[in-house]
């Protein structure tokens, strides 16, 4: 573990939310432009969160805040491991824990909208977990290691070998970023059948924690995407992964929300068709 | 200046309105007016909202909802009454079943007249509410400091 | 050696002592002290023999001969008792006495063989069997303590009251603890026997005990399920006996010693090993033999905990772990892994459908055992390491969950997960125990992660058929997702704030509290100190196998940073609530969002016609999406085919 890696990891802890907020701000501007609107300023997500800290916090049960702390902490741990060049599987497991804690926070309020939101979120987790787990497996078959630092040091053409897994990952990236057609756990916009789903009963600083957690998540997911192209060098890898990342905005704006059953079925089919096939081919020809 | 003026999230409720004002209000979100420029988001959830936009003349059924929604909004918050009915009951003022005005039920900060109120007027009302919110946010901060000390 | 003898004889004598005590209170106290004594004895054994090299014990000529005869007669007696019990069978269960007779015939054919292998070292002890003994002694003891109070209530009121009065006479109630202790004695026997015939005798005794304990309440359903358990376990028994016949009369390998069987390697020992593996699969309830464990859930909860989560089913995987070096790098081993994998996948999915807490636990038990079988079939040092860790974590966490579910059912009067809504607020201590159990079962810094971590890596580097390894990895990938779903769903119910106050007056009985909190502490300790467990018990075991050249040397072991990070996450998960408790944020309370229709800030809303209604929302069971019946059929068919294939490849090789 080099000094460089430690710098990067601590930089993630401090600057990660900032970068994530910028990604979210860019996302909102892009969305607005696609709808021929002007859209909010780039720093709007930051304003939102700072405002939420100014607001009072109403809770249904005080324990919900505890679970949210856990959510944020494990999200940060997941990213820390990733940017330290550590174990990809471990980073993934921390991400899963953080997701579960978010669901628990919503379950704790026991109000119907939060309940439906967290149940659907769990269903989404069930939909994307297989594919998300296949990504490190693919990297392992190509580079012989689960360690991020080894994956980065891999061969430039590894992304070609992992083509199917990349497609599968892009598919579930839509779910992870809570974009349409898979925004069924917490709708982007209010006034829909589930209000704000998962986050309905969080307010003030609680909601701010959720937002910050999502900023971290943005950066972590971008990091995962970057890993596919990392051996090409920053000059190539970063623009490609950013373009793919914001490609999700286009998907978001051109699709209507799916129900949970087709979502599950679809994502498992995609995982099987692209992810598993890719793994099998790798094991046959490696 | 507090950040609440840069990111006012609104909650919209039609308290027995004819939906005329509601259509105008929702028009503010469309590309033509695009209030998201100012960070305004229509949340549809009192727990996330800063400004409560109410239309309509309020009857007994909607009164309870208005009160509940208002109670579930965390401080600092502001209320904007939109349209003639919300101000005074409008043409329904003398009807036996309406309260005639939002301020009969909850405290109102800004009154936006019109039947129906125009989108420009609504946006202007929200902007006026921002000044009030800013004041309240500062006050709230002072109170918190006092409690902490 | 004296300690081993003590461990086998002590529970036996304890059982007899309990049987002869007539006074209920006296009996209960006796059980308590005996359970403590048993736990203490196993702890002593562990203290004396951690990091031990395998040790073998020889007995005097006369003693061996006497024991040989004793166990032979004992085996016949067990079979005769079971035959006698078969007078209750119904038409379709005719196969049970047939199996019994076949098994008895095979065993007599083996035992009365004119020329049979001589067993020089009938007992042994290595660090893995010490670890198993520790599980059996400590967890088994705690379960007995829990059972004291539980059975008291069970007979006094609740589930078994009406039937139990009529069908459980006092004699049967006395025999209950006798059977528990006999079962523990037999478990120690399985763990320490190197003599395969003696091991088989103990194996038979556990079958008998599980049959008796499942049928305990004497209701028609219980008896039917008891017979099903008996029948399926007898299939395993016949298969085991077949292996013994092969080892006595077959060509090639002639031995009655477990260590020589393992040392013979896959070229010589594969056929008997496959046959014994079938016995292991039946005992650990793998598909297609899983149905008996589900039926066994009619038994009182401590029985479920003892037999079907922490000990009995572990006897099956214990034997499989022992045989793993034989399976390493064979097609039969890969197929064994696939049977485990299919079981894991299918039962994890079906568990989502279940409403009853005990059934969820049953399915997840089968799934976890499937995971262990997957590891065993590959048989590298890393997977064995994972398998043994899984056995440890599963034993403590699942025993805790079963007991907690049983206690909860008594205190709040509902066995469904839905009934447990708001348990964190209603019974904080109980909920904490249950949450620790659930976390121990699956959440990241705890048990399952470690094992999954090791297995995924091992599967991807499988040599015998790389495609098979990928297939196994994919099974884990698809199987863990439903696991995550049903556990989180359950936790969600526990942490939900109750919609109205539901006071529960009943106090937590002392015996049950002791068992629950000890197990909760053990689960936490096992997670926090797993490197210690590894160093004390697992590493010496895999090390000795590597030393003997039975499995390849360790490569790509868990790096220390990974362990450090896991420990950090675990610490964080514990420190966070403490921090929260020390400095709780002061936030204003408010009711949940109900579209503004709340009634006075409660969880009720004003519905149509102004009527007040309480909000109701339930979990998702996905019964239309995941069809239990169809999945079971697919699982049975698939695993049946795999089983036949496994036996064929074993035979061809």
In short, what is this structure?
Chain A has 286 residues and is mostly helical. Chain A has helices spanning 3-34, 44-54, 63-83, 88-109, 112-143, 148-152, 158-161, 163-176, 204-229, 234-254, 260-285; one strand at residues 58-59.
Structural overview:
- Chain A: One of its GO terms (molecular function) is lyase activity.
- Chain A: The chain crosses the membrane at residues 6-26, 66-84, 90-110, 122-144, 156-175, 224-246, 266-285.
- Chain A: It is a multi-pass membrane protein.
- The complex is a heterotrimer of chains A (286), B (149) and C (653).
- Chain A has 286 residues and is an all-alpha fold.
- Chain A has one domain (3-285).
- Chain A is 75% helix and 1% strand.
- Chain A has 11 helices and 1 strand; from the N terminus they run H-H-E-H-H-H-H-H-H-H-H-H.
- Chain A has helices at 3-34, 44-54, 63-83, 88-109, 112-143, 148-152, 158-161, 163-176, 204-229, 234-254, 260-285, and one strand spanning 58-59.
- Chain A is globular, with a radius of gyration of 19 Å.
- The model of chain A has no long low-confidence stretch (mean pLDDT 89).
- Chain B has 149 residues and is an alpha/beta fold.
- Chain B has one domain (3-148): Rossmann fold (3-Layer(aba) Sandwich), CATH 3.40.50.
- Chain B contains 4 helices and 5 strands, in the order βαββαβαβα.
- Chain B has helices at 20-27, 60-71, 84-88, 119-148, and strands spanning 9-14, 41-42, 51-55, 78-82, 110-112.
- Chain B has a 5-stranded parallel beta sheet with strand order 2-1-3-4-5, with helices on both faces.
- In chain B, helix 1 links the parallel strand 1 and strand 2.
- Chain B is globular.
- Chain B starts with 8 loop residues before the first strand and ends with a helix.
- With 653 residues, chain C is mainly alpha-helical.
- Chain C has one domain.
- Chain C is built from 25 helices and 5 strands.
- Chain C has a two-stranded antiparallel sheet with strand order 1-2.
- In chain C, a hairpin with a 5-residue loop joins strand 4 (604-606) and strand 5 (612-614).
- Chain C is globular and about 90 Å long.
- The two termini of chain C are 38 Å apart.
- At the A-C interface, strand 1, helix 3, helix 4, helix 5 and helix 9 of A face helix 20, helix 21, helix 24 and strand 3 of C.
- Strand 1 (58-59) of chain A pairs parallel with strand 3 (588-589) of chain C.
